[in-house]
Q: What sequence folds into this?
């Protein structure tokens, strides 16, 4: 698992969604984190903003069961390194590190 990506995901869940760190293991499925459907959508939007990218719904639909944090990390990593994409050039938003480092 890519530490920076996973750390950012875990910080986002802890900071914005008040999920205790011990409930955020890499193999946790999104639906097991205690977020309702609206919160899951908000999480995906916050994740996209944090990494300054957009993930197509066919690759990450928060209503889909069984998406683990490891899988989510892989999806983000794939979008960050997509050749020629603006996302690959920009990387993680500076706002994430500033806002989550509080």
A:
């Amino acid at each position: 698992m890519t530490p920076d990506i996973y750390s950012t995901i875990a910080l986002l869940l802890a900071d914005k969604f008040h999920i205790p760190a011990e409930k955020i293991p890499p193999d946790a499925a999104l639906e097991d984190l205690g977020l309702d459907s609206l919160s899951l959508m908000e999480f995906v939007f916050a994740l996209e903003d944090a990494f300054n990218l957009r993930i197509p719904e066919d690759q990450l639909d928060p209503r889909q069961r069984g998406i683990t944090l490891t899988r989510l990390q892989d999806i983000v990593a794939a979008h960050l390194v997509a050749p020629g994409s603006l996302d690959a050039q920009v990387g993680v938003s500076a706002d994430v590190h500033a806002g989550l480092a509080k």
